[in-house]
Amino acid sequence: MRRLHYSGSYVLTSDEVSRAVLRYARALADTHTSDVVSIPILEEGGSHGSAHFLIGPASQLYSTPVSEPIHEINDPELVEELQRRTNRLQPSVAEWPDMMHTEDAGYGEEDF
Fold first, then answer.
1. I want to staple 82 with a disulfide (CB 3.0 to 4.6 A). Which of 12, 13, 20, 88 is the partner?
2. CB 24 within 8 A of CB 78
3. What phi and psi values does residue 31 have, to the nearest 5 degrees?
4. Which one, of 37, 4, 36, 7, lies nearest residue 18 by Cα?
5. Is the entire prediction scored with pTM above 0.85?
6. Where are the beta strands (DSSP E) in 56-90?
């Protein structure tokens, strides 16, 4: 589970969703375009909800790990769709297997 920080606040979402959003935001920034995405989140009190993000060249997104054990909110279809959108914008860019890990920071095997 990750805290996805945006516009002075954050939402809780899965590692996979957070990673896909950040990759897509990077592709949008590289191509000077923007898009709106809706992602599953864990709301206060533990209920499931969604959040809409306008992402593009000026987006200032980052994620941090959640240390408390929380049941992940997975959405494999959304992750696949964001990866397709990213690939359309950057067809020759690798999936960043070595760019989104935090072993050195002590957060675990993967950060985004």
1. 20
2. no
3. -105, 5
4. 4
5. no
6. 62-65
Computed over every residue of the chain, the mean pLDDT equals 83
Query: Exposed e or buried b for every residue in 93-109, given b needs 16+ CB within 10 A?
Result: eeeeeeebeeeeeeeee
Which two three-digit tokens encode residue 103?
């072993």
Collapsing DSSP to helix, strand or coil, 55 comes out as: strand
Q: Mind listing the pLDDT tens digit for each residue in 20-65?
A: 999 999 999 999 999 999 999 999 888 999 999 999 888 899 999 9
* Residues in the chain, total: 112
Q: Are 61 and 35 in contact (CB under 8 A)?
A: no
Coil, helix or strand at residue 82: helix
pLDDT of residue 26: 92
Amino acid at 76: P
